[in-house]
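Listing S7. Sequence submitted for prediction.
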Amino acid sequence: VLDLAGKRSIFSGTVADNVNNALHVGKTAAGDTILLVSNNDCTVKVFTLPDMERVACLDFPVAVNYAALSPDGDMMVCVGDSDQVFVHSVNGGFTKINTITEGSDSRMCCAWNATGTAFAA
């Protein structure tokens, strides 16, 4: 993890014992900057930045390919090696609020629109 403003590395260690599929940096509604690590071990690990304190480890039924925080920091969407899309509330912790099944193939990526009112997966 690099701090571009300070032009320095703030973390160069290991965050998982398996394949990290994707990293996503975002800001929660509370104003905390977090790192989401999507992993082949069927988890999304959540770290605070810049201190890299692990604050959550979310379990999923499949390997997770990508997780994205909404622009307002209220929601997170995750996709993986299934046709399911996992939607979480981020306020006061990470709580699954919905699982959406669309299509028949695995999902590789997801993203929110700029206002946080829609996402694509």
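Caption to Listing S7: primary sequence and predicted structure tokens for the chain studied. The radius of gyration is 14 Å. The first strand starts at residue 2 and ends at 3.
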